[in-house]
Design goal:
Distance between the termini: 9 Å
Order of helices and strands: EEHHHHHHHH
Helix content: over 70%
Strand order of the largest sheet: 1-2
Number of strands: 2
């Protein structure tokens, strides 16, 4: 299916029959900038050496190398999990949740980069040293509630929540033991694979 046949970027139909506007790439980039602006003063005033943000605990090159390996493993695991759980309600709801994004062309890449930078700067670099992995992961989950639109407490909702919380915990440990650049890479690749899966699923429906 070519790009012109993909889901229209103006609106998305929900199962309830209502139409919700598509979230465009610009909104994702703006969210990234807002997160970075919030994170910057927290990092500057709370870290003893804020200039070392991208060079500890491992050096930048080590972070990039280790991060890329971990990112590819995480992306593979993400794809395999979807293949195993494709028929479950939790997967269907996740696809529904992200169907509002404008996923045409290279947008999955740009959205993933923006999310990785903004969210890792705020949750990992700024908040995690102050609150710890577990509390930050809970906050990470809470900020994703509007995206997933959890409607009722059932097995599918718990599976979605566990995936978001668990992913945040993994990213938190990558940040603690490897570094921020590595966490951003892992986050980016998980999102890229996830958004490509969503786009493929939406195209298959059409």
């Amino acid at each position: 299916m070519n790009e012109s046949q993909q889901t229209r970027p103006s609106e998305t139909d929900t199962p309830q029959g209502t139409t919700r506007p598509t979230i465009r790439l610009g909104a994702q980039v703006l969210t990234c900038l807002v997160f970075c602006l919030i994170a910057a003063p927290i990092i500057w005033f709370s870290r003893p050496e804020p200039q070392t943000l991208f060079s500890r605990p491992a050096g930048p090159l080590t972070q990039l190398l280790v991060g890329q390996v971990l990112a590819l493993i995480a992306a593979l695991v993400s794809w395999l999990l979807f293949r195993v759980t494709a028929s479950l309600a939790s997967s269907a709801r996740t696809i529904e949740s992200y169907a509002r994004l404008d996923l045409r062309g290279l947008n999955p890449l740009w959205i993933s980069i923006a999310a990785a930078i903004g969210e890792e700067m705020l949750f990992r670099a700024a908040l995690q040293p102050l609150l710890g992995v577990w509390i930050v992961s809970l906050l990470f989950l809470l900020t994703h509630v509007p995206v997933y639109r959890f409607r009722k407490l059932d097995g599918a909702t718990l599976a979605q929540a566990a995936a978001v919380f668990g992913g945040s915990v993994v990213l938190g440990f990558v940040f603690d033991y490897v570094g921020l650049l590595a966490a951003m890479l892992v986050h980016m690749w998980i999102d890229i694979v996830g958004l490509l899966i969503v786009r493929h699923a939406l195209q298959a429906r059409e």
